[in-house]
């Protein structure tokens, strides 16, 4: 994770109104030259300035469509800004207002370790074709290893489509995989594999701290999905006990969770889906319906405020906050824009050309493979 120096004065003592006035003035002055993208997990005090909001997949696509904008200020986390840099033109500049806004899950896999994993698993697999599928929540260097090995990135919104592509024969336009190596998140691909009709026995976990990931040749050869031992520190917080508690508290409540949650939580919920799918499900729900939502707290609170004719509560009693994304606040946004209007670019995020070439192979596949809009019903 990168480190951001404290902003110092005047930003530390500016009021919300002062920051608001300055950000709005800069936006007006920069006009079409500026686009601000905001991830759904971003706090309301920042999302109010976003020209577009979305999950990783939607924002990646949107970034690639902003042909008029010279500056793309990404209010998300570092891997998202890297993807935006790769999907935009060479003359466009991507800025992350706080460089320490990283992703703990993306930090769980690096390129060297992923390549070692691919080599070790290939040596154990008895000649089976292994295709890596990397969650978009990963560094550009990890995406490059994926692209070089014939794989693709995916998001929670199109994971199933990408896995089906990977497992389809090359004659049918797929990657011809006999086995999938999924990194860094284990939970998303395990849940999706079960949606596709596979069993838990078809999945094994590769532990990067152990030789061969702690796996034997027999285990690798019997498995279809080899899952890197990674997770999201936010979605890992949700439990089956919380689901039981909400059901006791609000009889008739429906539980919808993100597939980054552990598999027992996904299976105990009524529905699971990506952030876009969760948003759509709540938006289309009947007035008077009751929902417990297992995802990042800023999004859940926004849904509760937007749909006041239905009950929307956090699944957990404590707040599951993406603390790294939360580092982007109005002060950092104001600071980045202050510099832009004075002709200085701060916190530009770039990907080296050799990494970009290979990473784009994996990223382009993700952007072009459509996901589904509806959440998946578990019960
Ligand atoms: S919610 Fe989890 S996966 Fe998403 S950016 Fe935050 S730490 Fe990363």
Structural notes for this entry:
With 379 residues, this protein is α/β, with parallel strands linked by helices. It has helices spanning 16-30, 44-47, 56-65, 78-87, 111-124, 140-148, 159-167, 186-195, 217-222, 240-249, 263-268, 275-284, 297-306, 330-341, 353-368, and strands at residues 34-39, 52-54, 71-75, 93-95, 130-135, 152-154, 179-183, 203-206, 225-228, 254-257, 271-272, 290-294, 311-314, 376-377. The protein has 3 domains: 11-102 and 324-348, 3-Layer(aba) Sandwich (Rossmann fold), CATH 3.40.50.10800; 106-232 and 358-377; 236-314, NadA-like (Rossmann fold, 3-Layer(aba) Sandwich), CATH 3.40.50. It has a 5-stranded parallel β-sheet with strand order 6-5-7-9-8, sandwiched between helices. Helix 2 (44-47) links the parallel strand 1 (34-39) and strand 2. It is globular. The mean pLDDT is 96.
Protein traits:
3 domains, 379 residues, binds iron/sulfur cluster, alpha/beta, Rossmann fold, five-stranded mixed β-sheet, single chain, five-stranded parallel β-sheet
